[in-house]
Amino acid sequence: MIWLVQLAFDCHDPDAITAFWGRLLDYDSELAHQTPEEVARFRADHPQFDGRGRIDDRLLRRMPVYIQRVPEPKVTTNRVRLEVAVPADDGSPAGEHSDPEGNEYRVVVDPSVPTRRLSSIIFDALDPKGQAAFWATATGYTLDQTGTRCNPPVSELTWTGQSFSHPSAPDRDLFHVTGSGAAHGPAPYDLIPAFAFSKNDQPKTTKNRIHVDLCSTDALADRERLVELGATILHWNGDQVLADPEGNEFCLGGRSRPRD
């Protein structure tokens, strides 16, 4: 079972992307709000993290975001883009925008949201309904009436202070690095975005700069299930990377252990 979806960015400057998206999405994340001097000291003290970054919400409401440096430049419009919902009094202009490295995103004003949030991950698709059906079945999300969007279920996760638990795996403790140092929020991961699929007749030609990582209670079983749904295995030694039916890369992993 997929118990958590996280987001991953390929980029040139992990610190710039961490700061931009952590602040735009109001993450309670120390690294995202540090000054450049503080970040430089952290990098000097922790060389093992060179080229990498994370945005974690200490309240465990927003999805974890992993950021990694890659040598390839951005060469075309992203086929995977983000939609950010803001409250009416936020002051952020609605419309199309881009981050410091040119990653496109959309801002929509939504009076129903009390705070900024990542509302949708938008995929360009040759077959939006087919893609939506794949991802809904893959993740357990629910298709909406248009058939081109799938929404996350109400979170059933609980956080023990050391690990997560889910009713579908009552005998296992589920682990994720984002839990380290986390505080107790209203409900673990209750602000997870939907997947939306937009018609684009041009096929995918380059590796995506943004992809999702799926955390599983049983990665091997989910790998076989996803392949039966139409996924393709790209790598499985070290990095566990698959592609959806239209070639969008995603990672599959997970760490758990039997509960004592």
Overview features:
260 residues; globular; alpha+beta
SSE order and pairing:
Blueprint: E1 2-11, H1 14-24, H2 36-45, E2 52-55, E3 65-69, E4 80-86, E5 95-98, E6 104-109, E7 117-125, H3 128-139, E8 142-143, E9 149-151, E10 158-159, E11 164-165, E12 172-175, E13 194-199, E14 210-216, H4 219-229, E15 232-235, E16 241-243, E17 249-253, E18 255-258
Parallel strand pairs: 1-3, 4-6, 7-13, 14-17
Antiparallel strand pairs: 1-14, 2-3, 4-7, 5-6, 8-9, 9-13, 10-11, 12-18, 15-16, 16-17
Question: What can be said about this structure in brief?
Answer:
With about 260 residues, the protein is α+β, with helices and mostly antiparallel strands. Helix content is about 15%, strand content about 35%.
Task: Assign a percent range to the helix content.
Answer: 10-25%
Average pLDDT reading: 91
**Number of helical runs?**
4
Specify the biggest β-sheet.
7 strands, mixed
Radius of gyration over alpha carbons? 18 Å
Question: Uncertain runs with pLDDT below 50, 5 residues or more?
Answer: none
Q: How many domains, in number, for the residues?
A: 1
Spell out the helices and strands N to C: EHHEEEEEEHEEEEEEEHEEEE
Kindly report how far apart the N and C termini lie: 21 Å
Shape: globular
Structural class: alpha+beta
Strand order of the largest sheet: 2-3-1-14-17-16-15
| Beta-strand percent range | 25-35%
The count of DSSP E runs of length 2 or more, i.e. the number of strands, is 18
